[in-house]
Specification:
This protein has one domain: P-loop containing nucleotide triphosphate hydrolases (Rossmann fold, 3-Layer(aba) Sandwich), CATH 3.40.50.300. The protein is 32% helix and 29% strand. The protein has 10 helices and 12 strands. The strands form 3 sheets. A 6-stranded mixed sheet has the order 6-7-8-3-9-10, with helices on both faces. The protein has a 4-stranded antiparallel sheet with strand order 2-1-4-5, with helices on one face. A two-stranded antiparallel ribbon has the order 11-12. Helix 4 crosses helix 5. It is globular, with a radius of gyration of 19 Å. The relative contact order is 0.17.
Length: 266
């Protein structure tokens, strides 16, 4: 089970949003994607999910170009939770999660008791089984994010892709959500805003800037004083723990000159 990008670029008109990105997601790992706002993280996640075909280069699933893989197959293999996924429809939590079974349904394969069991299991895995009959609009932000993940799990994917999943959540729900994702027996790629979260939960981190992948490695290899100053324009001290993890302590004051001179992309 592999997910790979080879020399991938993605553009809108003449504007290059993602440039020359090559990476391979290792089976079973939690890969974090970090970078300043506008560095191309969201666009790269969409390419990895198969939603946006690369303008140049190749995106591969198990060594096969995604453009040759059917949409239903991609939807069954890759679960993608976007930043602002929401709905105004009056649906229950169970109905929202049931949407994850769509790739498997057809006239020859209608909804079955097996689908009910998969949806129930997905809800239980995110600790939302007792809220299955609640209306979507009554949920908190943290509860909605858990339902989004349950919907992705109902797809029974091999890969779970999350685009800044902790946005708009308080710290308790941020940590709870990442602990949940970390515990799942899946290969995970998550674009993360909080660098300490990336240090705590990720096996490897890919750092982006200006639409390019500029470094990839373990948290201690990527989250260095020089990288944080060069890419994010911040001064920080890095504390290294006995468990091999690191913790970032930011210094007061931002180097505005570093941040302002960067040519940001959407």
């Amino acid at each position: 089970m592999t997910l790979e990008l080879r020399d991938v670029g993605w553009s809108v008109g003449f504007k290059k949003i993602v440039q020359d990105v090559s990476l391979r997601v290792e089976p079973g790992e939690f890969l974090g994607l970090i970078g300043p706002n506008g560095s191309g993280k969201t666009s790269l996640m969409s390419v990895l999910a198969g939603l946006r075909p690369p303008t140049i280069g190749t995106a591969l699933l198990d060594g096969q170009p995604m453009k040759r893989v059917g949409r239903r197959t991609l939807a069954g293999r890759i679960g993608f939770v976007e930043q602002q996924a929401d709905t105004i429809d009056r649906i229950t939590v169970r109905e929202a999660v049931s949407l994850g079974r769509t790739p498997y349904l057809s006239l020859l394969s209608p909804w079955s008791a097996g689908d009910d069991a998969i949806v129930a299991d997905a809800l239980d895995r995110v600790a939302m089984g007792d809220m299955a009959d609640r209306m979507w609009q009554t949920l908190s932000g943290g509860e909605k994010q858990r339902v989004h993940i349950a919907r992705a799990l109902a797809q029974q994917p091999d890969f779970l892709l999350l685009d800044e999943p902790t946005n708009h959540l308080d710290i308790r729900h941020q940590l709870g959500l990442l602990e949940l994702v970390h515990s799942l027996p899946l290969t995970v790629v998550a674009a993360l805003h909080d660098l300490n979260h990336a240090a705590q939960f990720c096996d490897r981190i890919a750092m982006m800037d200006g639409g390019r992948l500029i470094a990839i490695g373990t948290p201690t290899e990527i989250l260095t004083v020089d990288n944080l100053h060069r890419v994010f324009g911040v001064n920080a001290d890095i504390e290294h723990g006995l468990d091999g993890r690191c913790h970032i302590r930011y210094r007061v004051g931002v180097d505005v000159s570093v941040a302002d001179k960067k040519d940001r992309v959407a």
